[in-house]
What does this fold into?
Amino acid sequence: MRSIAISAGALALALAAAGCDGDGGGSMTAAATPTRTAAATTAASATPTATAGASASATASATAAPSGSAGVVAQAQLDAYENVARHIYTAERAGEPVRQSLKRIAKDTALLDALAAGRPGLERTELMRQLFLPHYHVVRLRVTRAGRVTGDVGSAFPVAGSTRSLGGGSLLAISIQDVIGYVKIVHEDTGLPVIVRGQAGHVVSSLPALTSMTLPASGPVTVAGTRYLVRSFSEPGFAGETLQVSLLLPSAA
It folds into this structure.
């Protein structure tokens, strides 16, 4: 998992400006670093987890929202945490690391030669080589020509990335972070439970109980006896997928 450096001081300032302290109230669970593989598998013991059938005994139910000054403070906290989560996603999607990797791979002569010769086997071999190059972190590579996919390797559930023309009508799209890594970073930086949902079967959460639940897009909810306020926002995913990111702020109300 590639780490994004988010200043703890910057988060504290954002919360202070909102009239809040920096304690999200969430418990931080120890986690193994997700393992990157060509088949988009992640170590089963890693947290965040992408297991869809987790904790069927957990429950989610509506509860009363905090009112008055407590409600104002809670919403300000959620504003600050949402800004952090959005900043992390933007950095992973379009930051300098992804731009540099895209530029480097677009100059790969072996890949360009395979595309020019119409050799899909060689194209896949070179994409796989790029996927596992030491000292780089690329989790998904996809090449299309005239809207048809000619090569696609890596993580099944990555964040959105960037694209670049390879000439001859071919377009390269890459991602440098999978969703499990993004969730882990947001959880570590905010202390809040985080869940990201995409298309059917695509769900990753820092709190396994959430994967089997339907949460409101916003507002109060009780999960397994703990009260939270939910804040959700959308981000573009890879290859046209739409992601919904939800943050859960513990609430005393």
User: Anything to note?
Assistant: The chain has six helices and ten strands. Confidence is low (pLDDT under 50) at residues 22-59. The chain has two domains: 48-94+179-250, 96-175.
